[in-house]
Input
Amino acid sequence: MKKGLVMEGGAMRGLYTAGVTDVLMKYGIKFDGAVGVSAGVTFGCNYKSLQPGRVLRYNLRYGSRPQFKSWRSWIKTGDLYGADFCYYTLPEVLDPFDTAAFARNPMDFWCVATDVETAQPAYHKLTTGKGRDVAWIRASASIPVFARPVKIGGHAYWDGGVSDSIPVRFLLDKDYDKAVVILTQPAGYQKEPSRLQPVIDRVLKKYPAVVARLRQRHLEYNACLAYIAKEEAAGHLFVFRPSQGIDVSAMEKDPNRLKAVYQVGVRDAKRQLAALKEFLQD
Output
């Protein structure tokens, strides 16, 4: 029986995912494959490198630095989250990402990005955790308007959340029998049309396919939530949802608020651990 893990994005809400995955690593929960989107891959890749605690640690230590995330970075570079700092200085120097462990781990791991010309999802299997993989991870988390497209192999890509916010169908289509899904919004959440759509229409007019996709993103997202609920009821999915609302913005720098989000994930994972083990053993 193949078992998979799906990790939604959500910027700093991704610390909820980190809390859940740290508990799963602590208790030796393993998967045959995983897929992450945006923060779901930038934080979730630590599952494959077997580095519990790393996500919280570097966010608390460096999250307030303007090189990490700031409007100044956006004005100067076009990236709200500083590309050089987040994808090179941080994982290579300040808090090393264990690429050797990442490569050794047999768990398959994909990330999702969005082709800027077609607005279709592109799925890339991460194998080394460095080089070209880093470009794909960065692309998966590059939010339109707030980040530059990332060029890879003659194409350019933006955040995977534009085209496949919760890639559960992608994983199940690869013949996974059961999957665990980590969402970053509480039960009952429904996405509304973006209030920034008029700005998006103007700023991204060179990318009409992306603009069109963003206009209907809330509909696609809510349809995906309905599909997840259906598959969960059928016993094919096990779903983690924040047990309380997570009040944290993409620009949050307060270490206490960041840690609070993480702790919600830790508590939810511990509370549901026995049920999860039963689900995976069936």
